[in-house]
Amino acid sequence: MNNSAEGDSLIDIAYLNEITGGDEELRTELIEMFETETVDQLGNIKAYYTSSNLEQLKQAIHKYRSSLFSVGLLKTASKYKEIETTLKRNEPVENLNTKLGDLEQESLVALQFLKEI
Asked: Distance between terminal CA atoms of the chain?
């Protein structure tokens, strides 16, 4: 699957159009804010995971989920929520590093797609 098709499948365009009311300027603003948040929060998520700071990791994931929702990345947000919920229960997340890496990649592919639409 090419990145465009993959990006398209990650983003709920109808939801994005609904929250922006079809306003191109607002959509562009949301995408720019999402790009900044993506850089910041993915960096935080990686740092907190690496330092095993699970409390901060939960907070960073929670904060990033809001950004994902703001641009229609509902499936990605849902996957992050599963991780967050498991961490809140103080249970180990199976293959956490792999999952975080996959979600980071998913977010970056979607961001690239958003910037092109």
From this structure: 18
Q: Report the C-alpha dihedral over residues 11, 113, 29, 21, rounded to 10 degrees.
A: -40
Question: What are 50's two structure tokens?
Answer: 């690496």
Residue 5 has a pLDDT of 77
Is the CB of residue 71 less than 8 Å from the CB of residue 52?
no
CA 114 to CA 11: how far, in whole Å? Answer: 8
CB distance 115 to 33 below 8 Å: no
User: pLDDT tens for residues 58-113?
Assistant: 999 999 999 999 999 999 999 999 999 999 999 999 999 999 999 999 999 999 99
